[in-house]
Each structure stands twice: as structure tokens, then as C-alpha cells.
Amino acid sequence: MKYTILGMTIMVASFFVSTVNAQDLPVASIKKQIELYKENYRGPYKQIEWFCKDGTRRDSKDPCPDKIGGGVQHASYRDDLKDLGNKYHLFFADILTNTDKEDFWDSSNNHSRLKQYQLARYLASVDDGWVQRKSQYYRGAVQSEDEEAWGIEFYQWLLRDDARLRENYYLLRQSLRDIPHDGDSNLAQAMRSQSKTIAEEFPKFMEARIKIHGKPDVSDIQMVQEFRARNKDKFSPAIAKEFDALEKTMKEFYAPIDFTALNAQLNKIKSDDVLVSRVKTFLENGSKDQDAKKLVTEIADVLCYIRQDITSLSRASDKLQMLDLTNELEDILLLKMQEWQPETLGDLLQKIETLSYATAGTGLVELGEWYAIEPYLVAESYHEDKSVAQLNDFLATSRGIVEWSAAQVKANYQDVVERYAQFEPKAHGFIDDRVRSSVALDLGESVSKLGAFITKYSGLENKVMDINGQASVRGLNPGYAYGELVVVQGTPENIEVDTEKIYVFERPPSDLKPVAGIMTVSEGNLVSHVQLLARNLGIPNAALSQGNLEDLMEYSGKKVFYAVSNRGNVIIKAEKDMDEQELALFSKKERSTNQVTVPVEQIKLDQTSVINMRDIDASASGKLTGPKAANLGQLKKMFPDQVVEGLVIPFGIFKDHMDQKMPNYEGSYWGFLNDAFAKAEKLKKDGASSKEVEDFQLGELQRLRGAIAQMTLKPSFIQNLKADFQSVLKAPMGKVPVFLRSDTNMEDLEEFTGAGLNLTLFNILEEERILKGIKDVWASPYTERSFKWRQQYLSNPENVFPSILIIPSVDVEYSGVMITKGINLGTDDDLTIAFSRGAGGAVDGQAAETRLVTTTGNRLLSPARQSDYIRLPSTGGTAKKTATFENEILNEQNISDIRAIASAIRKRLPEMTNSDYKGAYDVELGFENDKLWLFQIRPFVENKNAKTSEYLESISPEIDNDFLITLDAPIK
Fold first, then answer.
1. Where does the secretion signal sit in this chain (predicted)?
2. If you count Cβ atoms within 10 Å of the first and of the last residue's Cβ in the chain, which end, N or C, has fewer?
3. 308 pLDDT exceeds 50?
4. Residue 916 pLDDT more than 90?
5. Cβ–Cβ under 8 Å, residues 842 and 528
């Protein structure tokens, strides 16, 4: 018999909502407020006041007397600004003096207020003061010496807790560049902001601005001076003044390294700790020899050493001095790495390794993550020739470091940036600015050079229009498509996609509808529902860099041909450049889709009572229930201690309710459904367009969903469900939180996975919500997204029958997906696993911890970068939590348990089900107190047509992986 395995949809996106985002923002009114602040000479402030130590406030001309402890003077906030903070947790112009430290750290909201302060500083730098356009000249509003004093107190309070430092190393170092505490300034950001402002006002400067932003070096000073001399007659006095400021900033930024000042800063640390001695030795030696390669290597080492041992310093003030020193050292690193220009392959590999190490020292990559990938980047010898295979592995690993670094920036700031971007589009530039001010900028450039070099020997060359940095593009699964290219910047959640278009996303939406092709900056993980659907259906799918996405913007809206080969090289070309072979792929004959017909003749609709999950197995799939329930019942028999109890509402109960009279219709619900499809077929025969037919069907299905939501459940069914709830789950309905999982006959087929298309309800407790949830799950196959996927790939999408699996919730610490084969890397004997913290891990596109697990080891393919996650309290609903990334998710015992369960599944499942299925399995699982729980399993379905396409094979180069390349080979 053919064997199909169970699948699951977890609708978790709605639960990943920060408490500060819980209330929709009044975007229009906030925009008006911002414009008002910009034009008001006091900006967002009301007046200057004295704030006394006893809590009283006095007029600006009436200082706080000494007898009550004195006080400080600064502006007070306008009432409408305070309302933004109270109602929407928005803080546009924080004055730090007198601000409560706990409130500013804002740990309960993922440090939102601190991040907003940083973002507001950025907006002020790129938009002439932003909300303080005029009030930046409001004398006395902010007292710099009081702000700095507060900053020192804040960090000394913050750094008393070593856990805060370990958990938020990247965020803390970044905040030091923005929060005043030592007369500091952020020269790199100022340089980028000033050049951006000039280019916006004087477009001819754009080329110079791109150079300053993308490949900065000391020669930029001369470039700016020469540009200014050529165009001085065209400048307004304002632009001339901005050039003065830019030149001054650049000269400060590129000034010779002052090791004496750095030593003086180090001497402020009172401890004679080993760490301090190590840094002092470096500074003494560094002042003698400033060779770029040597200095970059030593700084990377010192930065990692400081990060590893900084908590050995006992005084918070010493930790603050050392963190400030790391920022000084990073600035030197950013200067000197531009001077290190490798001329040979060996030197380039050393530079990539060194800069990758520096990402760990600066917080872009966690120390544990560096240790995990260090063996794949640190060459045993830089004196031996390297094979193409070794170099490609080095390239993949180092490219991963670039992506992990960018993901760290996004994980820390994306929530705040997306929130602000609703009313201030310039906020989008903040993340890019932070990436460009880090070691990731030159590391990415170096990795691109390596990719271009390897291309010459491997033949694995991308041809993506004429964009730069093509080595950053990599195919995820094969396929080809033709259609309009749509490049989406920012959040994709409100984008209405089209089945005939090709989309480039910063990150894929959680509920992606059918599209012709996709590319993503944030891949999420290899086994998310979006990635599995793309792989299953032969939708070309590739990853690219943020820079690649921006380069593709100029082609957005144009028709293109897009292909990903079996070996991962990517082609995007304009419609006019398609050759005859590519045009033939989209002829009517060639483009006809091989649709799957779902068998319905075996369905048993006479089972109208609830089933104990223990009483069914895989043989019930497609007959009494969908594959989820049938195969979880099978797993319960195989692994009784690792699968929960469960109840099943079979197809028959659904059909019994659908046979009832439908309100405002002369027949039953089922009759209405079949009538709708019959009318659609007639429209098609009468010559209606596919769009007209689809619109009619979606309208009818919307009406049906509404009717099902109002359906009266039969009393006999409710009584039956309550009784079985008590007997199987050992508690009355309403006392045990449960999952309600849609389980249709049209998923987990041999050629169609259906992953993620229908509804699963999380951790429902109340009886009323469970009964309502049953109707919602029955209606979910008739949603637009679910229907469109079925309509496109199944020949009989109208014959959908939902059953429902009801299982008690397990409050797992982390959960994810296991594929019983290596995907993209590894072999069919390996495992690919992806885990995120909390419930619903990895399936919804989170940036999950992904590993390739072999019989003897495991390799980190990407770390977790999802800052928010959910837990499942016994009271029902969900509890939002915030993650930090200093610790890996899975431990060695977890991985050992995963290996063991995978081995048992591979061997025992076919035996117990008499199955001839020989492919890989897609398993969802989780850990609670290190106990492994199995939640579901399905066949891992890949698109055979894409893999065997003659065209895709023709563009897949033959690679001689054993070909050796000398390390002395020149890099050009």
C-alpha cells in the first residue's frame, strides 16, 4: 500500500505580537503630530522647568533650593507626546535626565524604549533633527552634562548584572554609541548621514555617497574634496556648509590611531585583572607596528578575548570602560580592514577567517556559534592547495557568517523599525546603517570576491540581471518561472500576491499564497512551511543579500525569466533576453500542470461518533480521518510515551453537519458547496475569464465560511464529545487546554504536501471556544489561500473533507522540525533539523537553529535569530516571551534522542504499516524538560518534475570538486 504521513498547520503568526504592538497605531494622526513637532520651535517639548530632588517642579526662573537637595533643569514634554508614550509606548524625544532606569531599559518590551532612543538619534541625523528640526536649537531643553551623568549612572546600574551583559552583548555595545556617557560621538554614522543628506539635496553626489556607504576608505576624503572643487559654483550656502561638516567628520574618522589615548582610557580601569594586562600588551605592541593585516588579526583576537572574559571585572565602571574600548578598537578595525587588500587566494581566506572571528568579538555572532563553525573556517594549513569542494564549503560557511551577522542586527531592531516605518519610512534605513557600520560590510565584500574567484573554477555562476555581488545569491530549490518581478522592501504581511508573479522579499510572509517564484533575504529556515511548499511544488526559490534586493529594485515591475538549477545556480534575465528553449518552457503544451487527483471513493462517512486516537492507525488515513490523526495514532502505538492522548472528529461528523439545512439557501451546506463548483464550471464553459471564475468561487466560499461559523452543532455530537473528553483526556472539557488541528483528505499526499494551508488553533481551554473552534477549523479549507493552493495543484479541490485532531497541549521549551535526510547539504542518511524556542517552532518561517546531523556529529547551518516566542500556560492562550541568543537551543542529549527516534521511524514505520514508501519523513517534535514529544509526521515531498527537468539539468554545470587550486593563485 502507499503510505502517507501526517502533517500540521500551526497558525502562530498572530501570537508573535509584542505587548507594545497590541494596539493598532493611529498612523495618520501620528504623522500629523510629527509634522507639527518639526515646525514647532519647541518641537515635542512644552517649556523649560526645574526638576527638584524632592519631586517638585519649578519655573525656569525659580531654581530648586539647596535645602531640598537642588535639582536639574531641562524641558518638559508636551501632553500629546506623553500620550504617545502612555497609549502606544512610543518615545520620540526622550530626555534621559530623571528618566527611570528600569523604564528606559524596558526589558518587558524587548528593550523597546532604549532602541527607540537609538532610532530617534538616527532619524535626527538623516532628517535634519527629525521631530526636533527646530527645537534642536531650543536653548536649555537638554543639558548635555546632565545627560552624560545620567548615562554613566545608567550603565553602572546596568552592568552590575553580568547576565544582562552576556545576554545583550551586541545591543549594549551598540547603545554605547548613542547614549551620552563620556563625551562620545559616532563618527561613522555621522559620515554616512552627512553624505546621504548631501546626495538627497545634490543628486550628482550620489555616486560618491554610494562609495562612502559601501566601500569606505581614506581616499574618500580626496574624492569629496575634488568633487567639491568641480561643483563649488553649483552649491547653495547650505550645501557648502554640509560639505564642511562632512570633511571635518571624515578627517576625524580617518585620523591616525592614537594609542596613547587608548592606553589612557585603559588606565581608568582600576583592576589589574589578567584581561587588562592582555589588552595593555596589545596596545603597547600595536603602537610599534601598524601593518594592516597584523593589526586586524590582533584586534579580532583582543575583541573576542574581551567578550569572553569581561565579566571577570568586578566593578561596573570597569566593564563600562572596557566596553567603550571595544568600540574604539572596532573603529580601528573598520579602518584597517579596508587597507588589507589580499592579492592571493590564501590571503583572502585568512582575511575572511579573521573578519568572521571579529563578528564574534563585536557581538554579531555569539561565541558558541563561532566555536561551532570555527573548524570549517580555520584552515589546518594555509600552505596546501585547496580543492573546489573545500573552497565551496568555506564559501558557504563564511557566507553564513555574513547572513547571521545581518540577522543579529534585524533580530535586535526589526520590531522597532517596522513599527516606526508605519509613520516614518526613513526608519527602514536604520538596520542597513548598523550593518554598514560593522565588520559585516567588508566581510561580505571579501566573501563575494571569494565567490567570484571560485566561479571561474567551478562553473557554478549566477546570472542575475547585471547586479553586483552575485556570489551572495544561492538557490534553495530548483524550478523555473516567468512573470513580473516584484521586489518587496519591509514587512510583507499586507502584500497581496499574484500567482503569475515572482516575488523578492526581505522575509517571506507566514501565509504565502501561490506565486510563480520567490527569493528571500531572510530565508527563515530550510523546513518552514513556505520552504516546504516551494520545494514540493517546484517553485524556484533562492536566497540573496539585502544589497542584492536593493540592486533588483530597478527591475521591479518588469517581466523576467527566473530559474534555479539542480545545483543551486540562479538565472534572472529580462523577457527580451529569453532564448528559444526558455520561451518553449512556457508554451501551452509545456506549461500544463501535472495535477494530482485525490481519491475519495474510500471515504467512510457513516462514522458519526468521536474516535479515541488510540483506536486508529495509518490505515484510517483518507477513510475515517485525514493523515494527521491516522498517523499520530500510528505513532502512539509505536512510541506510546512520546505521543499524547487524543480525540478525533472524523469526516463523517463534518459531513453529517454539512447535510443540515443552510440558512438563506434552499438546500444544505453541502449542496451549496457543490452548487458553487457547478456554477463555476458553467461560467468557465460559457467563456468567462479565469479571474471571473476565481472571483465567483471565492465569493461563494466566503459565504459558506460565514454560514459554517454560525452553524448549530448537534446536541448528540456535543454530548458525545464531552463524554470522550472526560474518558480519554481525563478531565472535563474546559479544564484541559487543547490544540484543534485541521486534518483534511487533501494534504500529505505523495505529490502534494499541503503544509501550512489549513487552521490549527493553539492551547484552547474554554468549552465555548473549543466548540466555536471546531466550526472555524471546518471552515478553514475554504479560505482564499487554502483554496488557491488546492485549485492550482489538485484536479478535484472541491472534494475536501476535514476531520479534526484534538490533543492536549504540551508546554515545550523548544520545538521544531526534523527531515530524515540532508537537505542541500549531506546525504539521505543524515538529518536536517530546525528548532526555535517555545511552541510552533520552525514551521512558520522563524529564523531557527538549523543543523545537519550525521551519525557521528552535527553541524550548525544557521543559529536561531527569532527574538520572540510563545509558551502555552495551563490557563489556555499563549504567553509571549523574549529570547536572547547566547545559548544554543539544542543540547547534545536532545540531538542524541533525535538520532534515535529518526532511526526508529525509518526502520519501524514502514514495517508496521506495510508501506512501500521509501522517501524521507518530515517530523514535528518538541522538548519539555528534555523529554522528546512527537506531534506529527508526513512524507517529505519534493518536486520530481523540477529535479528531472531537461532545462534545469542543462543549466546545472558539471563541477570537478576534486580540482586543486593553489593558494598562491592571484585574486583579481
1. 1-22
2. C
3. yes
4. no
5. yes
| CA–CA dist 179, 622 (Å, integer) | 61
Separation between Cα atoms, residue 468 and residue 286, nearest integer Å: 36
Domain ranges within the chain, ordered by starting residue: 340-461+943-972, 465-589, 604-660+711-941
Characterize 186-204 residue by residue with b for buried, 16 or more Cβ atoms within 10 angstroms of its Cβ, and e for exposed.
Answer: bbbbbbbbbbbbbbeebee
Give the integer Cα–Cα distance in Å for 66 and 52: 10
pLDDT grade, residue 16 (50/70/90)? very low
Give the helix ranges, DSSP H, for 794-891. none
The arithmetic mean of pLDDT across residues 345-363, rounded, is 96
User: Inter-axis angle of helices 367-377 and 292-309, to 10 degrees?
Assistant: 140
How far, CA to CA in Å, does 320 sit from each of 173, 324, 326, 364? 10, 6, 10, 19
412 vs 170: CA distance, rounded Å: 9
Residue with cell 556570489: 471
**Which residues are registered as beta bridge partners of 806?**
647, 740
Helix, strand or coil, per DSSP, at residue 762: strand
CATH of 465-589, one of 3.50.30.10, 3.90.1200.10, 3.40.640.10, 3.30.460.10: 3.50.30.10
Place of cell 526589526: 414
Kindly give, in sequence order, each residue whose CB lies less than 8 Å from that of residue 324, ignoring residues fewer than 6 positions away. Answer: 176, 182, 184, 265
* Contacts of the segment 294-299: beta carbons below 8 A, 24+ positions apart: 295/332, 295/336, 296/333, 296/336, 296/337, 296/340, 296/351, 296/354, 296/355, 296/358, 297/354, 299/329, 299/330, 299/332, 299/333, 299/336, 299/358
Phi-psi region of 527 (alpha: psi -120 to 50; beta: other; left: phi over 0): alpha
479: Cβ contacts below 8 Å, ≥ 6 apart: 517, 534, 538, 539, 540, 541, 563, 564, 943, 946, 952
**Chain length of the chain:** 972
Q: Cell 542543462 maps to which residue?
A: 954
To 5 degrees, how large is the angle CA 337–CA 339–CA 342? 85
Q: What is the pLDDT of residues 24-62, one digit of tens each?
A: 899 999 999 999 999 999 999 999 999 999 999 999 999
160-169, 328-337, 682-691, 909-918: least confidently modelled range: 909-918
Query: Residue 869 in 3-state DSSP?
Result: strand
The dihedral through the CA atoms of 902, 906, 909, 915 has a sign that is positive
Per-residue pLDDT at 527 exceeds 70: no
Directed axis angle between helix 112-126 and helix 429-436, to 10°?
Answer: 90
Quickly state the pLDDT bin for 167 (edges 50, 70, 90).
very high
Give the lowest-confidence range in 180-194, 302-316, 730-744, 853-867: 180-194
| pLDDT single digits (tens) 144-160 | 889 999 999 999 999 99
* CA–CA gap between residue 650 and residue 724 (Å, rounded): 14
* Tens of pLDDT, residues 55-102: 999 999 999 999 998 999 999 999 999 999 999 999 999 999 999 999
Residue 894, C-beta contacts closer than 8 angstroms, at least 6 positions apart:
927, 930, 932
Q: Which of 757, 751, 729, 737 is nearest to 8 (CA)?
A: 757
Radius of gyration of the chain from Cα atoms? 30
The three three-digit cell numbers of residue 896, written as one number: 542524541
φ/ψ bin of 50: left (φ > 0), alpha (ψ from -120 to 50), beta (otherwise): beta
CATH-assigned architecture of domain 604-660+711-941 = 2-Layer Sandwich (3.30)
pTM of the model: 0.82
Counting other chains too, the contacts that 58-65 makes at CB distance below 8 Å and 24 or more residues apart are 60/140
Q: Which helix (H) or strand (E) segment is 638 a member of? A: helix 627-638
For residues 204 and 111, give the distance between their C-alpha atoms in angstroms, rounded to a whole number.
40
DSSP characters over 6-20: -------GGG---GG
Strands 858-862, 868-871: pairing is unpaired
